[in-house]
TrEMBL record:
<dbReference type="GO" id="GO:0019825">
    <property type="term" value="F:oxygen binding"/>
</dbReference>
<dbReference type="InterPro" id="IPR009050">
    <property type="entry name" value="Globin-like_sf"/>
</dbReference>
<dbReference type="InterPro" id="IPR012292">
    <property type="entry name" value="Globin/Proto"/>
</dbReference>
<dbReference type="GO" id="GO:0020037">
    <property type="term" value="F:heme binding"/>
</dbReference>
<dbReference type="InterPro" id="IPR044399">
    <property type="entry name" value="Mb-like_M"/>
</dbReference>
<protein>
    <submittedName>
        <fullName>Globin</fullName>
    </submittedName>
</protein>
Length: 139
């Protein structure tokens, strides 16, 4: 699994690879995502606050894993099923908000954010998001 250099460097600048760095990144992302639409907050209504952060970290990790490997990561099938029409019912436009919130967060917290960094993030997120949306449409 090889992480593209601009993305790897961006992630490191943001989190410093420390627990505190990750926490603060996730908090900013979480606030941005929740403010993006009342539907986002509504979907997480029943989720405990502490659990939400963990979920965000897990969702980010699973989606990045997909970008860095040539296979569908173990577990992504189940995650996609959990989000489909018959379960959490996460409509495709919510993934757009998810991606835009993440890019907005990175632009705020990575001091070296530029077009190349943005593109490296978007390219990494695309396969996983497409997988989730395709699964939703087929459900
Ligand atoms: C970008 C891709 C996404 C990935 C990879 C992802 C991943 C995950 C994972 C791993 C879980 C935990 C599943 C479990 O173990 O129970 C989860 C739960 C959840 N996700 Fe996502 N997610 C994504 C996008 C979204 C979006 C756009 C929304 C829209 C609001 C959303 C809403 C939720 C909700 C409501 C839960 C359940 C929380 C609970 O258990 O109370 N997710 N997601």
């Amino acid at each position: 699994m090889t992480i593209p250099i601009p993305l790897k460097e961006s992630l490191f600048r943001i989190t410093g690879d420390t627990v505190e760095g990750w926490d603060s990144f996730l908090e900013t992302f979480y606030n941005t995502f929740f403010a993006s639409s009342p539907e986002v907050a509504a979907k997480f209504k029943r989720t405990k606050l502490k659990h939400q952060r963990l979920l965000l970290r897990r969702s980010l990790e699973s989606i990045l894993k997909m970008a860095w490997s040539t296979e569908i990561p173990i577990g992504l099938d189940e995650i996609a099923e959990r989000h489909d029409r018959n379960n959490l019912d996460i409509r495709p436009y919510l993934y757009e908000l998810w991606e835009e919130s993440l890019i907005q967060t990175v632009s705020r917290v990575d001091p070296y954010f530029d077009e190349e960094v943005e593109l490296s993030w978007r390219i990494a997120l695309e396969p996983g998001i497409k997988f989730m949306i395709d699964h939703y449409r087929a459900s």
